[in-house]
Amino acid sequence: MMTTRTTGWRMARMVCCALALHALPAEGIGADAARRAALPAPVRLDFEVTGVISSPYSGSAELVWTHDGRRYQSQLHIRKFGLTLQTWTSQGTVSESGLEPEHFTSKRLGQAEISARLDRARGRVSFSEGTPQTALQAGAQDQLSVYMHLAYLLAADSELATMGQTLALQAIGDRYAEQWTFTMEGAKSVTLGAVSLQALKWTQEPSGTRKQRLEVWYAPSRQFLPVRIRITEANGDYLDLVSVHNPIR
Fold first, then answer.
1. What is the pTM of this model?
2. 16 phi and psi, to 5 degrees?
C-alpha cells in the first residue's frame, strides 16, 4: 500500500522499465489534462543486457509502451541471438494517483503463458498457476507497471527526488505478492557507452522470499526515462540493463 513518501530466466522475470514526461502545472488546467501530462509518452526503448545467470550472459531488451491517457499497455521483451526468450505484459488504467494494473502476463520461450489478475472491485489478486489468491492493496503494482508508476510520480512531484524519500507498495508478479520499499539515493552518474548522465537512483532492498535487490536509475535530462536497471540475486547472480543512447522513438 502506498503511504505518504512511503508510497535462462529466473532473474529476468523481475526486469522491467519505466519512462515519464515532465508534468505540466495543474493550475489552470483540468486534473485529467494534468494527469495526461505526467504520463510516459508512447515510446519504444532499447537496452543492452549483461550479467551472470550461473554463467556470463549478454543480450538485449526492448520496452514498448502505449496509452490513450486512460488505459495503458506495456510490454518488455528480453532477447538473445534474435530469439525472444521472455515477454512481460501489463495492462490497466490510469488514475490521478498513478497506474492501476489489471492484468499481468509472463511468457517464456517454449512455455505456456502464466498470469496474475488484479481485481480492484473485489480487492483480490488471482494467479493462473499455483499461488493462492491474496488480498489486493490500494496502490498495488505489478512487476512491470511499477517502474512506469514510479516515473509517473517523479514527473508529477519533484519532491520525490529528495535523497532519503521512500515509496512503499504491494508488488504483484505472476506467482507472488509481496511488499517493496524503494529508497531515493539521490543523483548518480551513469555511463551509457561514451555518454555520462546524472540520474536519480531508487533502490529496493531484498524483501519477501526471493531476496532480490533492485536498483533503478531515472535520467531527468532524458524525460525521466530509466537509463539503467540492475537486479541482483542473493547468490550473486545479476542482470544489468543499460539504455542504448539513441533518440526516443
1. 0.81
2. -165, 175
